[in-house]
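Slide 14.
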Amino acid sequence: MKYIIIFIFFIFNISSYSAFSYEKLIDKKELVKHFTIKEIENIQIPEEWSLVKDIKHYNEVIQDHYKDLGSPKIVREFQANNGDQLCFDHLKKFDSIIYKTGDSFFKTGTSLDWDSCIMYAKFRQFFGNTLKKIPDRNTDLLKNYLLYYSSTDSFNLQQGDNHYSYWKTLSMLAQMYAVEKNHLGLSNKEIKMINEWFVSRATVDLMDIKLQAKRGRCKIPNEYDEEDVLRTAKIYASGNAEPIFKGKTKYRGADDCGTISNAHTVTRLLIGLITNNQELFDTGIVDLKYLMTFIDKNGVYIPYAYRGGLAIAYSKEFLFYFSVFAEIFHTLDINFYEITVPSGIKIKDAFDFHYTIWDDVVPEAIIKYAKLNIGNKTHDWTELLKPKKERKTDGLGVYLPGWKETMIRQSMRYVQTYRNDLFEKFGDEVYRKSLGYREQNLFGANRALNLHAVIRANERYEEYNKKIEEEKQLVALNQKRLKDNAQKLKLKKQKELEEQIKQFNELILLSKYKKEDAFLVLPDNELDFIASQSPLIKENWEFELKSARIRGELQYANQNLKNMNTDKANILYHFDNLDLWTAVLKDGETEAVGFFIADPPFDQYLLETNKAIVKKCGRLFKPEKWLVILTKTNRDNKQVINQQKCTRKFYLEEDEEIQILFSIIAKSAKPIQYYLENN
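Slide 15: predicted structure.
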């Protein structure tokens, strides 16, 4: 009897397995061996790797950019009800949890389930106290999960549909770990234990206990043709592959190229890098190459596009996962966006396309796949034919792409590199001031990374280290110079400095008028005007003997002005490329030179001061937009003389920059007058 029972059991299992058995799967490595992506193949991973270079800068970014972050009701409910302990106690028994349990609710309806608890953990890890909007990040819950799961074998693939929850949860834990590994306060023994646990889980291919098998390779139609189902991966990989299956073939294998496959690929790449496991990382590269084969020549990610009415909602996930890939490779000095996929386009081209899903009309390139209506969860593709405002909302927004701003934050590196049009509208400062915070979606069902925060933190790290390195190099250089040429340099520099200071002081010293017979005359000096182009002669107005736009530079004692004092080079360089409207002015025995200062660059320095001075001192020949410098007048012309004295007095009471500009312009009156009169 015992043997009969065993035999029946054996036959039952054989038949049960055969009901879900697949033809022998082609290995992913075989499917992608037809093409090479040299940028990401044969990468030797570094011994020490981190996603966030310095958590100090990561914390700064959160403080700077996310102080007004709102949180979903789920998170607020848990935080108000001792969520850390509730979730930890509940998730100790992950292997026995029924996905989306509904037997435990808070008063307002929040379910105590895995999705709710992982969202809560993500918010606590990233932001901290969301009730009080205090960015006091708390990673204790993440630490407790990882230590418990890695030491108890309680995180296991479950029966039924829970494989989805299992694989995406593993990925989110890996994403959080990639940010926090070095900041959880773990001992070396604990890190080793957690690393080994992650590797053991990440090494396994996508499985479904319910089907007692691997999920199966993706077989998706290349075109809207139910009679010709092709293996898209092989088609794109080889370029001219023949159909493997003819006629109607039941679709299966969605997980193999869908969201959890993207998530699992992220897991393998991150954990491979974190644990310095070259084999696991290389497996992730094979997975990524395989996923790339599902990007068609228009940039459509086909496994998301064929989901009927869900095509748009799914397609935005492409931007998240491929942005994560991009950031991983950025840490390895690889520009992921410039990689060419088997269909012949670049990753950045696929991003360009996916940013069109926010347009009012859904692109035809997606519609042709959406017509297949595979895995649509009752959401029909025809709804996507309507303008955005006319589509059903059904409370979930499944026919809509979601917030554009959210995905811009998640694909910030692409945006700031290739899409200045988007960055100008949704860059950090503009986004913060005008659009408000829609960041909750960053921690949606399948995401655990705020890539904007990662990018900005690493930028700050790089800038800080660049500055430190530059300072070190400068110190080293100066030390070497001092060592090799100490005395010689000292004497030479001292002499040069004294001469330079002397000449600069002469340059900015206002010339004193000298008496010549019955006149006061502005004396000549060593300042010269060197024309670079012929003057543009203008029509002479009142009091103007000659009016012209002059272009060239001022030199003092044959020196370029900005070289005379490097500390003041930001002011002096304005005289390198003068482009200035000037005029020689005369009224009776009074002569002067006028400078139109309402044009750049002098407008920002002198115009407002000059207006005030003209108001106080009166004007000479010209209105307030002109700076007029007296070059000659009768000694008895007290009105003119007093006007110039007043002008000088008030200019010399202004800021140093304005004083310098005025002094040099005043000194240039004579050489410019000479130039205008002789040209």
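Speaker note: The chain has a mean pLDDT of 83.
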